[in-house]
TrEMBL record:
Domain CBM6: 438-584, 706-855
Transmembrane region(s): none
Matching PROSITE patterns: CBM6
Gene3D superfamilies for the chain: Galactose-binding domain-like, Glycosidases
GO molecular function: carbohydrate binding
Name of protein: Cellulosome protein
C-alpha cells in the first residue's frame, strides 16, 4: 500500500481586478445607531476620522435611552462631516416594545401623532440647518406598534392585516410633510426585508406616500445584504418606483462588532451594494457602536473605518475565494487614477492567501509597484488601539498587468490593508512596525490555587449574540479572597524590552466589582519584579480591554504570572476574567511615521511620485489653501515631538484638532496631543508646498506642564473632598453640580498667554435604569469657566465606576500669570427649556474630579 502524504492546503486567492470599476466610492457602511451621545462623546475628531456618514438616534427629549437626542447631536455631527440624522420617532417612549400610552389603538396613535407634531415643530426652529434630518415614523412595526403583543395597536400583525399600519403610515407622512414640505421620511424600517414590504410599497405608491429613503434592518449576514438589496431593487423595477436611497439602519451582531476581520466582510457587502448602513446598537450609547474608547480613543474597529473612509476614486471588482460567504476571506477595493493609487481592505480568514491584482495599468503604475501592507488588529471592545501595523513595505514587478502579494499568518480577527502605488522612484522602504509578537491564550495557561473557571465558548458563527473572544474561551478565578495564579510560559527570540498586553475584563455591575472598581492583580516575571495591574472595566462580562506594561526579558524561556496575592504588594479586590496575553518586541525608538501620499487631501492637493528619495512612494503637493490631514495616535494626553518633513521650499500652517499652532518649521515641534486620535492638518500658504511625511515621536519635555490636585481647590456648596483609593493622592472632589453654587475653583498659572490644554482626571459611574438589554450609563457634564468668562460645557463619558479615573483634555485660553478655573453643573432641561427628564437620564452633576493638569498646546 502506498503511503498517504498529507498535503498542505493551497492558500486562498483574493483577486482584485483594477480594470473593472464598479462605480464611485460611496462610504455608506460607516453609519451608527445611537453612536453619538452628545457633543464631545465621542469627540468630533473620532466622528470625523471614522467618516461617519449617517446616524440614527432617538427623538429629541426621548426617554428610551440617555443621550442621543437628535437635535443636540445634529450640529456637532454635521460640523464633523456627517450627512444625515435619522430620527427614530417612537424612541420618544420607553420600552421595547414601545410603551405608548392609551387604552385603545386609536388613542395610542392619536397621542403618538402629537409626539410627531412636536418633533417636527422642534426641527423647524433650526431653519435651513434642519436639512440633515430624516424622520423615521415607525421602527420594526411588526414587533412593536403594529405587531401582536400587549403594546400593539390592535393585537394583529400588520403582516397579516396591514390596514391599520398603512393608515397610520399615511397619517404620519401627511402630518410631517404638511408641517414641512421639504422634510424627508424613511421607512418601513422593518426588522428584515419581509415579502410584505412589497405590499407596503404598492400602498405607498398608490396613495402618494412613498418614503424618501427606504430602510430596513440587516441583523443577518453580509450575504443577505447583497441578496436583499438586489431583491429590493428588483421590487422597485417591477413596481416602477425609484431607485430610492437605501439605509440598512441596523446591521451586524455582538460577535462582529469591534472585530476588524468580521466588519470588513460587512463593509465589502454594503459598499458593493452602494447603500448606507448603520451599525446596530447592542451595548452603550456614545461609543460609535464599540468603536470608540473613552471620549477620544480608538479601537481596532475605528481604525478599520478610518481606512475605509479614506478610499477614493472608484471601487473595483473583488473576487473572493468563496464569494458572498460569511466567515471567509472577503475584501473591498478602490482605484484612484488621479492619485495613481489603489487600496484594498480585506480579512475574515486565518492562514495564508495570495492577493492578486489584475488589470494593473502601466500608464498608472508603471512597470514596478510599491506595496504597503498593514494590519488592523482587534484590540477589544473597550481596548484602545494605535494606528495600523506596518507589516511589509516593498516593490514588486508588474508582469502582464498582474501583481501577486503572498501573505501568511493571517489572523481571522484582523483586517488588512494593501496600498499600491507606482514604484521605481527610489523610495526608502520601511521595516515592519514590530520585530516579533506572540499571543498566549489564558485557557492554555497553567492555573494554581482555588476558584478556577474556564468560561465559554463565547461568540462564534453559531452564537452571534455573544462577544468575540480570542480562542473562544477565557479564565476566571482572580478575585477577592482568591489565592489563584495564572501562569503563561513564554519563549522570546532575543534580549529586549517587551510589551505585555493583558486582555481582561471586569463587569462593572458584578457584586465584587461594584464595591471597589477596577480589579487589581499582580504580575511577576520568573517570580521577580512584582507590579500591580488594574484590569479594564466593561459594561458586561466578556467585554474586552487590555492593560499594558513592559518587561525586560532575556532570550529564551520565561514564566509570566498573574496572581490574586503578592507577598510584597497586597491582595486582589474585585473579580476579573482573562482572555489572553500578547507579547510584543519593537525595534524602533517610538517614532511613528505617517506618509503624506496616504493621508487625506483637499483643496486641490495632489499626490506626486516625481520626488526621488521621498520616505514612501510619493509626496503630497499642496497649492495655496490646499490641505493634507493625518490621523495620529497618541497613547496619552501630553507633549509629543512632531516633525512635518517637507521637500524643497514652501510654507504652510499646522493645526491640531482644529487649533492653529503656527507655521510649519523644519525640525521638531513640541505639541500637545490628546490621548487617542488627533487630527493634524497642514495647509499650504505659499504657491507650492511639498509634504513628504509626518513623524510623531516621544516627548522632549519642552512644554511646561503642572498638575493641580482638586482637593487643594476652593469648594463651595455640596462639593467636598472624599477618599477614592485610585485617585492620584487617594482623594478627589465629589458633589460638584446640582446647581451653580456647588463648585470647584482652582487657581492655575500660565507662563505665557494663549491656548492651553486642561487635562481633567475624572471618574463617572452614574447609570440610569434600563428597559432592556442596553446598559444605560449617563454622561455627566461640567460647565468650565475661565477667569469668570461664560462657561464652556464639557461632556464626560462613563468610566464604569466612581473609583475608575480617566483623562479628558479641553482647550482653553489662559492669561499670563494667575488664572481661575471654575467647574459647576446643573441638570439640563428638555428642548423647550422648561420640562425635565424624569428617569435620571440627564445628570445634574459633574464627574468626580481628581486633578487638573495645565499644558500649553504648543
Amino acid at each position: 500500500m502506498d503511503a498517504v502524504t498529507a498535503e498542505t492546503p493551497s492558500p486562498d486567492t483574493l483577486t482584485v481586478d483594477l480594470g473593472t470599476e464598479t462605480g464611485p466610492f460611496h462610504g455608506g457602511a460607516s453609519g451608527t445607531l445611537y453612536g453619538l451621545y452628545g457633543d464631545g462623546v465621542p469627540s468630533r475628531t473620532l466622528v470625523e476620522g471614522m467618516y461617519v456618514r449617517t446616524v440614527t438616534t432617538k427623538a429629541q427629549d426621548g426617554i428610551q435611552h440617555p443621550g442621543g437626542d437628535a437635535l443636540e447631536i445634529l450640529p456637532p455631527f454635521v460640523a464633523a462631516g456627517g450627512r444625515d440624522v435619522y430620527v427614530y420617532l417612537p424612541d420618544f417612549y420607553r420600552g421595547f416594545p414601545y410603551e405608548w400610552p392609551g387604552s385603545t389603538g386609536e388613542e395610542r396613535l392619536a397621542g403618538f401623532l402629537e409626539v410627531v407634531r412636536r418633533q417636527v415643530e422642534h426641527v423647524l426652529t433650526l431653519g435651513p440647518d434642519r436639512t440633515p434630518v430624516v424622520y423615521v415614523p415607525f421602527n420594526e412595526p411588526e414587533g412593536n406598534m403594529f405587531g401582536e403583543g400587549e403594546w400593539s395597536h390592535d393585537g394583529i400583525s400588520w403582516r397579516t392585516d396591514p390596514r391599520h399600519y398603512f393608515e397610520a403610515w399615511k397619517a404620519a407622512y401627511h402630518l410631517i410633510k404638511g408641517l414641512d414640505p421639504d422634510a424627508r421620511v424613511a421607512g418601513p424600517n422593518t426588522s428584515i426585508l419581509y415579502p410584505e414590504v412589497r405590499g407596503f410599497l404598492e400602498f405607498a405608491k398608490a396613495h402618494d406616500v412613498l418614503p424618501d429613503v427606504i430602510t430596513w434592518h440587516e441583523l443577518s449576514s453580509p450575504a443577505e445584504v447583497r441578496t436583499n438589496v438586489a431583491k429590493y431593487r428588483e421590487m422597485e423595477r417591477e413596481l416602477g418606483i425609484g431607485p430610492l436611497p437605501v439605509n440598512l439602519n441596523e446591521y451586524a451582531h455582538n460577535y462582529h462588532v469591534s472585530v476588524p476581520g468580521q466588519m470588513v466582510q460587512w463593509i465589502s457587502a454594503i459598499e458593493e451594494s452602494k447603500v448606507d448602513a448603520d451599525l446596530a446598537y447592542w451595548n452603550i450609547a456614545g461609543n460609535l457602536n464599540d468603536s470608540a474608547v473613552e471620549a477620544n480613543k480608538a479601537n481596532g474597529q475605528w481604525w478599520l473605518f478610518n481606512a475605509y473612509g479614506q478610499l477614493t476614486g472608484n471601487t473595483v471588482q473583488v473576487a473572493a475565494p468563496r464569494p458572498n460567504v460569511q466567515y471567509t476571506l472577503q475584501g473591498v477595493a478602490a482605484l484612484d487614477r488621479d492619485k495613481r493609487q489603489a487600496r484594498l481592505l480585506f480579512g475574515g480568514a486565518a492562514g495564508a492567501a495570495d492577493i492578486v491584482f489584475e488589470g494593473v495599468d502601466p500608464d498608472v503604475f508603471g512597470a514596478t509597484v510599491h506595496v504597503r501592507l498593514q494590519e488592523i488588529p482587534w484590540t477589544g471592545q473597550v481596548g484602545a488601539g494605535a494606528q495600523p501595523l506596518r507589516l511589509r513595505d516593498e516593490e514588486l514587478p508588474v508582469g502582464e498587468g498582474r501583481v501577486t502579494l503572498s501573505v501568511s499568518d493571517l489572523d481571522a480577527m484582523s483586517a488588512y490593508q494593501v496600498v499600491l502605488s507606482p514604484g521605481g522612484n527610489g523610495a526608502r522602504l520601511l521595516p515592519a512596525s514590530v520585530a516579533w509578537r506572540r499571543t498566549y491564550e489564558a485557557e492554555d495557561a497553567t492555573y494554581t490555587g482555588g476558584g478556577y473557571a474556564k468560561n465559554g465558548p463565547e461568540g462564534s458563527p453559531s452564537d452571534v449574540d455573544r462577544f468575540a473572544t480570542s480562542g473562544g474561551y477565557h479564565v476566571g478565578g482572580l478575585r477577592t479572597g482568591s489565592d489563584g495564579v495564572l501562569a503563561f510560559d513564554v519563549e522570546v527570540p532575543r534580549d529586549g524590552t517587551y510589551e505585555v498586553s493583558v486582555f481582561a475584563n471586569s463587569y462593572n455591575q458584578a457584586d465584587l466589582v461594584r464595591e471597589f472598581g477596577p480589579t487589581n492583580v499582580f504580575l511577576r516575571v520568573d517570580g521577580e519584579a512584582p507590579r500591580e495591574l488594574r484590569l479594564p472595566l466593561g459594561y458586561k462580562w466578556a467585554v474586552w480591554g487590555h492593560t499594558d506594561t513592559r518587561v525586560e526579558l532575556s532570550a529564551g524561556r520565561h514564566r509570566i504570572t498573574l496572581a490574586a496575592q503578592d507577598p510584597d504588594l497586597g491582595v486582589t479586590k474585585g473579580d476579573a476574567v482573562v482572555d489572553k496575553v500578547d507579547l510584543i518586541l519593537r525595534d524602533d525608538d517610538g517614532t511613528a511615521v505617517y506618509e503624506a501620499e496616504y493621508a487625506s487631501l483637499d483643496g486641490g492637493a495632489v499626490v506626486s511620485h516625481a520626488h526621488r528619495g521621498a520616505s514612501g512612494p510619493g509626496a503630497a503637493v499642496l497649492p495655496r489653501e490646499g490641505t493634507v490631514t493625518f490621523w495620529v495616535h497618541a497613547a496619552d494626553d501630553g507633549e509629543a515631538s512632531v516633525n512635518v518633513d517637507v521637500l524643497g521650499p514652501g510654507e504652510g500652517l499646522l493645526a491640531v484638532n482644529g487649533e492653529p499652532v503656527g507655521p510649519v518649521v523644519r525640525g521638531a515641534m513640541p505639541l500637545f496631543l490628546a490621548g487617542g486620535v488627533n487630527k493634524l492638518t497642514v495647509t499650504g500658504t505659499s504657491q507650492l508646498l511639498v509634504v513628504d511625511r509626518l513623524r510623531v515621536g516621544p516627548s522632549h519635555d519642552l512644554l511646561p506642564s503642572t498638575a493641580y490636585p482638586a482637593e487643594e481647590g476652593a469648594l463651595t456648596g455640596s462639593a467636598k473632598v472624599t477618599g477614592y483609593p485610585y485617585a492620584t493622592g487617594g482623594k478627589a472632589v465629589e458633589g460638584i453640580g446640582g446647581g451653580p453654587g456647588n463648585a470647584l475653583t482652582l487657581t492655575v498659572t500660565a507662563t505665557r498667554a494663549g491656548r492651553h490644554a486642561l487635562t481633567i482626571r475624572y471618574a463617572n459611574g452614574e447609570q440610569a435604569p434600563a428597559t432592556h438589554y442596553n446598559p444605560d450609563p449617563v454622561c455627566r457634564h461640567a460647565d468650565v469657566s475661565v477667569n469668570g468668562a461664560a462657561p464652556h460645557r464639557v461632556l464626560f463619558p462613563t468610566t464604569f465606576h466612581f473609583n475608575n479615573f480617566w483623562n479628558l483634555s479641553v482647550p482653553v485660553t489662559l492669561e499670563e500669570g494667575t488664572n481661575t478655573l471654575t467647574l459647576t453643573a446643573d441638570e439640563l432641561p428638555d428642548f423647550d427649556g422648561k420640562s425635565r427628564n424624569r428617569y435620571g437620564q440627564r445628570s445634574a452633576y459633574a464627574p468626580v474630579v481628581d486633578q487638573v493638569t495645565v499644558t500649553p498646546l504648543s
